Amino acid sequence: MQNDFLSDDYFMKQALAEARIAFNRDEVPVGAVVVANGQIIARAHNLTETLKDVTAHAEMQAITAAANSIGGKYLEGCTLYVTLEPCLMCAGAIFWSQLDKLVFGAFDTKRGYSQCQVSVLHLRTKVLSGIMAIESETLLKDFFKKKR
């Protein structure tokens, strides 16, 4: 049986903590962590408003931080946990970084990579979806309700 400390739920809770930071900073509440050998090597959340940069998604920030942490551009052996299904841009970054595994919470039925008609992730990248999806969706709904 897998140790709770190293479970997908544990790491998704860490990504949700990042999403809450984004929420409190008036950013779309998406959070991400990158894990290698059972340890978090990068944490990030959306910064598109703060940085005035459309590419500053949580996944992009986490991939960059993880690459800096390990000192290389390829993240083989790493898992990305993100609260919302990555968009096509982020899926491309996941492809190029060669992550072993992608775990995400809520599906993005408008802009998620799965809406594309072609496979955009690396063939070796395993995908697990729906982990803590309700918590992720609730945070997003609360954010956009506050915006109206």
Give your account of this protein's structure.
With 148 residues, the chain is of the alpha/beta class. The protein is built from five helices and five strands; from the N terminus they run H-E-E-H-H-E-H-E-E-H. Strands 2-1-3-4-5 form a five-stranded mixed beta sheet. Strand 3, helix 4 and strand 4 form a beta-alpha-beta unit. The radius of gyration is 14 Å and the shape is globular.
Write out the strand line-up for the largest beta sheet, numbering strands in chain order. 2-1-3-4-5
Number of strands: 5
**Uncertain regions: pLDDT < 50 for 5+ in a row?**
none
Helix/sheet category: alpha/beta
Could you give the distance between the termini? 45 Å
Write the element-wise H/E pattern from the N-terminal end onward: HEEHHEHEEH
The biggest beta sheet is recorded as:
5 strands, mixed
The average pLDDT score comes to: 94
Q: Any idea what the radius of gyration is?
A: 14 Å
Number of helices: 5
What is the helix fraction of residues, given as a range?
A: 25-40%
β-strand amount: 15-25%
Q: Which shape, going by the Cα principal axes?
A: globular
